From TrEMBL:
Bias (Pro residues): 39-57
Segments of skewed composition (Polar residues): 244-258
Bias kind Basic and acidic residues: ranges: 230-239, 276-293
Segments for region (Disordered): 1-80, 225-293
Originating organism: Punica granatum
Protein name as annotated: Uncharacterized protein
Length: 412
């Protein structure tokens, strides 16, 4: 039997799947007709290689950017070691004390105050101020306030404000006397400096705070006036008196020792228990009375410092009376101080009376239409009205601008 496929064209590379499926699905044709072998696809080795596509142009990358690693390279890459610097150090107690001593020695000079104040604020924020070193921290504040008027200087005003505002966080570590002193200093360094603000809300808030402190003051007594008078007299001689007292202290102590040796040369008084028991009770009473006297003295000293700080605040507020939006607040503040003038001492009462007289005089000028400088206080409309009263303006707008009312024709 001859070849059935003789004379037929060779099979195409893509056989028709429909014909193969028909023969494969019909079992009756399985014995009658044999399927021709389906030509296999050419192997990849024999197939012609596709033309390589041109490589894309590399994208411009910044030299500062770190190249991204592929996933395979990222897994194989060893994690890099990075150097990390320790920004905080756990200073010992002795190191903190030495730092406080150094800050205290430099904070008194105006040129070094800003840097020293920032270092002191860092100590407060780091929690280095503790009851064990509170005396050294208080010496920093004491050196900063060695000059009471330095805190209102324009060059260091902001640094004083920041230092004593941060010092409130360390107030719990101070004793009662130091807390009272810090409160008085805060009135000068924080409250008084807030009066220099350009914010009307803060200025009004500060004035309200000053009024509350004035209302909480007790009424001044005659002893307060006498104490103030004696303090003013002895202000210049205080340094010499302190030196004399320091020189006399050793001689007084030596004389007391010699008296005790003469009265009890063999030291037998210490062996007598009855005398010791009798002396214990009055000694305890003396201690109680001494503590009370010290507390009263501390209260008087704190009131004195507080009154002086309040007078300073009133004087600073009165200087800002030239600012129009400050005038109403200053009127109310000084009027409140004048109404409570009995809470201040005699010299302070005189200062408040002068302030109130100056404020009333400026109020009268304002009612007359004059400013603080004595000139007429005019608004924008009145100023323009006064300016154009002498100007020559034509009734024809753009014609005759010189005021002669002559028409000029421009015929080109």
């Amino acid at each position: 039997m001859g070849d059935l496929f003789e004379g037929l064209p060779p099979p195409s590379a893509n056989p028709q799947p429909q014909e193969n499926d028909i023969f494969a699905a019909d079992p009756s044709n399985s014995g009658k007709r044999e399927l021709s072998p389906v030509p296999s696809k050419p192997s990849p080795a024999l197939a012609p290689a596709p033309a390589p596509s041109p490589a894309p142009a590399p994208a411009l990358k910044s030299a500062l950017k770190r190249p991204k690693l592929n996933e395979s390279n990222a897994q194989a890459a060893v994690p890099e070691r990075r150097i990390r610097f320790k920004t905080t150090t756990d200073a010992s107690e002795q190191q903190v004390i030495e730092a406080m001593k150094k800050i205290s020695s430099h904070i008194g000079s105006p040129g070094k105050f800003s840097k020293a104040a920032k270092l002191a604020i860092q100590l407060i924020q780091a929690g280095s101020v503790k009851p064990s070193n509170s005396d050294y921290f208080f010496s920093i504040l004491e050196s900063a306030m060695s000059s009471p008027t330095a805190c209102t200087d324009q060059s260091v005003r902001a640094d004083y404000h920041a230092l004593f505002l941060a010092a409130q966080d360390a107030a719990d570590c101070l004793n009662k006397r130091q807390k009272n002193q810090l409160t008085a200093w805060t009135m000068r360094a924080v409250v008084a400096n807030d009066l220099f603000t350009d914010d009307s809300f803060l200025f009004s808030k500060t004035a309200t705070q000053i009024k509350e402190v004035i209302s909480n003051l007790p009424v001044a007594t005659e002893s307060d006036d006498l104490e103030e008078a004696t303090a003013l007299k002895d202000e210049k001689e205080s340094d010499g008196a302190d030196l004399q007292e320091n020189q006399e202290l050793p001689s007084v102590a030596d004389s007391q020792v010699s008296k005790t040796e003469e009265s009890d040369p063999f030291g037998l008084d210490d062996l007598i228990p009855s005398a010791a028991k009798k002396d214990d009770k009055p000694k305890g009473k003396k201690d109680v009375t001494k503590i009370r006297e010290e507390e009263e003295e501390e209260n008087r000293r704190f009131l004195k410092l507080q009154r002086e700080a309040l007078v300073t605040c009133l004087e600073i507020a009165a200087r800002r009376y030239k600012t129009p939006w400050c005038q109403t607040v200053i009127d109310i503040l000084v009027k409140h101080a004048f109404d409570n003038i009995s809470r201040f001492t005699s010299k302070q009462r005189e200062a408040i009376e002068k302030l109130w007289a100056s404020i009333r005089e400026q109020q009268a000028r304002r009612k007359q239409g004059k400013s603080v400088n004595g000139k007429l206080d005019v608004n924008a409309f009145e100023w323009l009205q006064q300016k154009y009263a002498t100007e020559k303006i034509s009734i024809r707008h753009a014609v005759g601008g010189s005021g002669d009312r002559h028409c000029e024709q421009w015929l080109g």
